[in-house]
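Anyone? Bumping this.
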Amino acid sequence: MKIVALAGGVGGAKLAHGLAQNLPPEDLTVIVNTGDDFEHLGLTICPDLDTVCYTLGGLANPETGWGRVNESWNTIGNIEKLGGPGWFRLGDQDLATHLERTRRLKEGQSLSEITRDFCNAWGIKQMVYPMSDSRVRTMVDTDEGELAFQEYFVHRHCEPRVKGFRFDGVEAARPVTGAREALESADAVVICPSNPWVSVDPILKVIQKINRPVVAVSPIIGGKTVKGPAAKMYTELGIEPSALAVARHYRSFLSGFVLDNVDSDLSAKIEARTLVTHTLMNSNADRARLAMDVLHFIGSL
Amino acid sequence: MKIVALAGGVGGAKLAHGLAQNLPPEDLTVIVNTGDDFEHLGLTICPDLDTVCYTLGGLANPETGWGRVNESWNTIGNIEKLGGPGWFRLGDQDLATHLERTRRLKEGQSLSEITRDFCNAWGIKQMVYPMSDSRVRTMVDTDEGELAFQEYFVHRHCEPRVKGFRFDGVEAARPVTGAREALESADAVVICPSNPWVSVDPILKVIQKINRPVVAVSPIIGGKTVKGPAAKMYTELGIEPSALAVARHYRSFLSGFVLDNVDSDLSAKIEARTLVTHTLMNSNADRARLAMDVLHFIGSL
């Protein structure tokens, strides 16, 4: 079964890793949000892309959900001693990714080529693509004005009240060739349990139209998000956060929807085939089992 | 006694540190070569400036003569794993200096302001100035064509045969105000035992004219350099490397010259007052004692 997974950061990376444990590498393609990418300290940083790659490569920090395992912090600590910005925590190993990526981008290599090379270096056999080689930047409209995503997310800890989103550059952005081909030949597209507003919507806007069956996994469990501001965003936009709200978000193209056991009562209200299962991924085994459930569900559609 | 020291990297940093141990901080100003500065991995790297500051701040690696003590190498190791350039060894702590300096330069701060801030952060009370806030780049003319200095020095290990030097941008470069004022009010200018061709000449070309007594310390001892390619450069330029050759290099403005005991026989040939003493600086005590000798020598002129 050939699968294309659409993923943001942590939750998306976990399910992608689960799928990787259940599929031959050539049958899994992951298309990753780059709307959260930003420039910091002169470096181009791609948080979701790195989280997905670090997770697939077994390099991710399981405690934080971002950055690398066995990380050291000597550079950022010294930047802070010099009075520089320390709010975005760049580990020493992680910094190598950003420095080398930025160097190659300046040399004219595309983000997808660079990602391919990095995956090779990290022993990742699945195809991982940024949603586009063009620059797209998620801007968060808040009660304090429009903020760049990382400014809102990391620097301001998601405190400003959300009023809407804008994906700067999205009109001109197209998926790279390999990603488009994978989308055309996939048996199904899996929307990972990532933030619908800021992780998945940018990818969907770049892809524009999906001609294959789409199954989404709810990132909201019992009205809450495992990590990140998705539930807070729903509330601030006047929508009660729930798996139902997520299913409605994707309703126009959804073939199947996966929600947690705790939300089983919502299943009947969802206008798509549903799978009710345990969706929390606390361990590697959880990831593999949820992915297996999702694949069986796709097979049954 | 108010002293201005002109310094390149290792040897210059050591004598500057010796002078710092013998003078009240407000009486020592160090003007540092920036002709070796270069752009690498998108960062502006100032090797001599950093060596001088790390040495004065007690942060230098005493083993290597460059970089920081108790350094870790996680970033550069990972850059190499990604196929990136590892030939210029950037330690994790050291990298903070380059990242934060580059960030500030891009914000429009001058190199001298940044250096002042960094010195404050590192507890350095002496005034340390780059020779200019303008960009000057030492280019080495070799039998393999013209090479940027770090390309010649680090990447090519000084192997190509030297034919001459060019200091790109030097015509437009001026000393910063504080450095100029220190030069005007100094009791003497000390040329540290740095490479005359590539560490001291660029500073002298920027300063243009020194109106105060100048004392130089030979970087060549017994026909050899303690570190670096100065002796090799003299030979390739058709001049026998010796303390005498260094004294002749500076002859037009030299008040006094300091050479090593092993070169005492050259003393009579030098057209300036000389001090023959132990000039090798293997320990902190060596630095302080040589500096004391130099200061007494200046007092006697």
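Late reply, but here is one note on the structure posted above: The radius of gyration of chain B is 18 Å.
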